[in-house]
Amino acid sequence: MQWCSSDDGLSCSEGHRSSLNLQTHEGGSICLVCLSKLISNPLSPTVHVSYALSQLSRSLSIPHFLQSLLTFHPHFLVSPLVAALSSFHDQPIAAQLTHLVLALSASADSSVCHEFVARISDRVSSGVLGWTSPQLHMLHCLGALLNCEKDNDLYSHIKDMCSLISVLVTGLHLPSEEIRGEVLFVLYKLSVLQNTSAEGDGSDMFIPFCPQILYLLVDVLMKTQNDDVRLNCIALLTMLARRHLLREECAYDTSNTSSYGGVNSKEIEDGTKGTSLVNLFAEAIKGPLLSSDSKVQVATLDLLFHYLSSVKTSGYQIGVLVEENIADYLFEILRLSEYKDPAVKMCLQVLDLLSTAEETFKRRLVVGISTLIPALRYVAEVPFHPVQCETLKLIHECISECPGSISTSQLEELILVLIRMLRKHSDGEMGMIPETFIMVCCVFVALIRSSSCNGALDLSKSIEEATTHAILACLSVSERNINQILQCLYLLKEAYAYSHDGNSVNSSKLELRSGILDICRSHLLPWLVFGVNEMEEDIALGDRMKNRIYLLLSSLLDSLLEDDSGQPIRETALHLPRDPIDLLFLLGQRSTNSLDLPSCQYAVLLIMYSSSLYDERLADEKLILASLEQYILLNRVDFLNRTTDNLTVTRLVNLYGLLRGLGNMSYQIHYSREAEKIIFELINNDEWDLLSARIHKVSLKWLFQQETIVNSLCHQILKFCRSYNLEEAHIIIGNNDQTINVQTLAELVSTEDNYGARLFVCLLAQLYEEEGHEHDIICVLNVMATMTHVCPVACEQLSFHGIAKTIRTWFYSSNTFSTTTYTSVLILVFNTLCSVHPQTLSADQSWAAMMERSIPSKKVDILNEESLFVIGIISLILHLSTTKALEEASKAILFNTSIISIVNTVVCASSSKGPALVDHDEGTGTGETLIFVLLLDYFAVKSLHATLPGFVDWQNFLDSTNPAEPLAFIGIRCHDLCRFLHFGSPVIKIVASYCILELFSKISNQINSNHEELKCTIGYLMSIRSILEGLVFYNDVRVATNCSLCLSMLMGWEKLRNETNLFDESSWCRLIIEEMTVSLATPALTSQSFLSSQRPALLIAIALLKLRKIPQWMRSVFDNSSISGILENLAASDFSTEILILFRELLKSDFLSTEQIATINQMLQECRKRVYSSNAQEGRPNEPIKKVLNASYDMGDICEYIIDLMTSEAYIDTGSWGFHTGSKKLLEEIELFFSTLTVDDDICR
């Protein structure tokens, strides 16, 4: 390059032509020939080359210079620049060269760029440069050229495309991130510029290199940590996915690969051998999916979307992606994106595609539901957001296919979002495409039918609001969509069913029911009337409307009754009349000439039957019954000849039963006895199947009131019992779909106005009499046990109709039955005794007889489950005897020698274990047996006192002259109970404490009423006292309280009263009282639970204050400061009966000062006012326990029930300081304190 003076401007110093010597802006010139020689020579100093290139770059910015170059020498520098690129390894020079190439290509016409592309691609394709720095520089320049071209014609100027791609694919093997990035970018730009091969045969240029290039790309994506390389790789894979090339190796014909210079599969890295492409692909995209670069993340989501959208992607590949946790990654992206686009849109689109792998995807969906609901909240706020429908579909699938996966808080949030969507749509604030509206309704229906919605959460108000907005939105749009209307009606139907579910008398559900009826009256009916008016104005239009209504009705029946139930209506829609009265008239016709009449009549019968299930009528019940009877009479021959299918007969019988039942409920209607006789014949001929069709409760009750068909009803009940699934995890409560279930039968059995209970008892008796029906007996017994579980009141009617006699007959029969049958009988007996009113049992002596038959005769110290079950039932019988029921049965049990022997054997064996008894809890055979025997003893003591008053000398339970002599009745002596109380496990301690408390109560009553002296020694009583005192601080308040009550009674016995020094010297009693006073005087400790824990000590203090001679140390414990501290720490709301009695006894014993009495007086005034204002009702008795067993019980359930029964009814009249709770007793004690205070004042005066 030469700079010439003004007088020597024709040529350069080398003598080159002046036309090739171009003038610069600064007065110099550049010789293109000299420049070309300099930059083309690889031996030229790099400093000179760099300076020359910079001067050329500056000159190209001068318009005159650039115009001269492009006008006269546009292609002159192409070859030198390309040669320079392939010669120099220096990066800065390569950058200058690339900049010049791009500048010339952008300024000149397209031919210059085409030549550059042709020459550079030819150099790269030749492979002569290997993978040196010049090759990389050439590749970078080629990529830049391909990226800046405005048209797509560059592809045609690459001479050997296959060789170029082959070289580029080879470069992907190299570990250099820079080389891989450049190769990937060039391959991506080539795929964008041209989609088909140069031969024009329609094939793709990448096919000869597949699947090897796919494995290489996935490997690069998996291993690279460079985001630029990732973006280039993802972009290329996306283009391949769009052209459906991203598929497994088996989809390609690899025989022609080598002919194109492709990469052999053996050259793929070892890490990918033997692994399918989809597995590698799934692993490769995990990193980019969680990339911190949002561009990489979005590009990866786009790649995944196009891969899944490809027609070549199979269900297996989608399933693999889900198994590889790709769905979990998408849910995480959604969460981290804070639910903003574009991540929300793309993630939900991909999740929708992944959901086609149903079973595999469901497990991921359960975890992802917590992410989908916030995503729905976002997309719901954007009008016509493209993924609203997809989001709703995913949520619907989770609710429908994965019951229980949605929590209560998620349920509430989801409902709020759905209601907001419907409200905005109905108000016209936000539009919604039909598909989205339909999915909103579908999700709401799924929610209504889900277990989460049918639990404790009451969604009545939300459901009413949603259905209102849905109906308004559906009917207000100008172009009504039939699918929208159908889905909206289905939502309305499910909402109405929800209003009848469970506790249908709930006020909120009653409001929901009323609201739905208002919707029908104010919106749906006017819409239908409008349609009818249009039909009357235009007959042709009316026929079309009529057909549409019938088709709509048939679709509804498909949904409601399933199994294409609406098909008969669709087939006859053209022949059915418009007027409902004409439908009734059609039903009463008989013609042998019309072939369409039977089909039309069946369609009419189907309409009447289905509408009756939802308490809808085509006309007045009298007209419907008359038409139905006419239909029955005209078709009697067909019915009796059995030419009508059983389903039709069943629906006919069910409809007839409903009409007759409604007539009996409201008024007496005239009916045809002949038609009734035909109906009964159909039933007795086994053409009616109770289980095959839905039935209204009114119809079912009427059928169960008909004595003529009791045998058939027994047969239907047996069929139900056989089909009942004992393995089901839950019991259906309610009967909104009018199917026969245990709840329905239990409700029938529990009422007196039908033969339900009698049928079950008779069926069981019949099966007992016949041999070979043990399986049927078990089925019936299990259903009866489940009935009494869901509806305990059903036991009343079963007992009234002689279930006890039936079971007793079985006990005494010669037939042998299995343990399963025996256990099922015991469950039914147990449930009956738990639920039946005592008056129903009072005259029935079958219970004792069957129990005596069940008692084991062998003397064993560990009883099996059946024997323990029998002991539990015997305890229930003894308990019932205290209410004047089963008294004779109880007496027989109390003196039964086998039971007495078992009790003595168990007691002896357990007592002999001593301290080791603590290891035998309810989980061991010994512990479980002892618990049941102790429970039996408790109820035996109560029963002896109730049924044989005055018969038992209760002092015999104390130390006697001959302790080895057994009792003549069921009972456990006091010292044995004390051993169990001292050494037993926690549960044994609880039961033993109630037993000894009951026994002490009876002894005290006998001593006080008969003025008897104790027959036992002081030493015996002191040993009992030691055990009782040791348990006053026991952690179970029941045990501690019972022991305190026993100690209080023991202190009141005359023999101990005379031994005053025993209590004066009792350091243990003093410790109890001192601990109590300190605790009660400690600030911030007085709470209801804390005061309850102090009850045992309070009872001891009261008993000590009632002694004839109060121990001297009591005055030092209850000194002035401690009493004042207790009063300062107590509030009026803290007063309990025991605290009031304590203060009253302290008052009577002159422990209180005048100031303390005044303080108590004021606090009692406040306490009385609080009690009165709270309107407490204390006089009502405790509700009886209604817990019963189902077929899948365990012994723990029985034990828990009997213990609850014992603790809930353990009211012991132990004096004025006894077991009293409630505001009524509190008020009584307040008055007693005031009375005592008045008496003391009078004495003082």
How far is the N terminus from the C terminus? 140 Å
Low-confidence sequence ranges: 1-9, 196-202, 255-273, 535-541, 727-735, 1175-1185, 1211-1220
What portion of the residues fall into strands of 2 or more residues? Answer: under 5%
> What sort of overall outline do the alpha carbons produce when their principal axes are compared?
extended
Order of strands across the biggest sheet?
1-2
Global Rg: 47 Å
| Subunit arrangement of the protein | single chain
H/I helix tally: 60
Largest β-sheet summary: 2 strands, antiparallel
Query: SS-based structural class?
Result: mainly alpha
Extended strand count: 2
Residue share in helices? 55-70%
Question: Residue-averaged pLDDT, rounded?
Answer: 80
Protein name: Protein PRD1
Organism: Flemingia macrophylla
Descriptive terms for the model:
disordered N terminus; ARM-type_fold; two-stranded antiparallel sheet; 1245 residues; Protein PRD1; mainly alpha; ARM-like; PRD1
Describe it.
This protein is an all-alpha fold. The protein is built from 60 helices and two strands. The model is unreliable at 1-9, 196-202, 255-273, 535-541, 727-735, 1175-1185 and 1211-1220 (pLDDT under 50). A hairpin with a 5-residue loop joins strand 1 and strand 2 (29-31). Helix content is 65%, strand content 0%. InterPro entries: ARM-like, ARM-type_fold, PRD1. This is Protein PRD1.
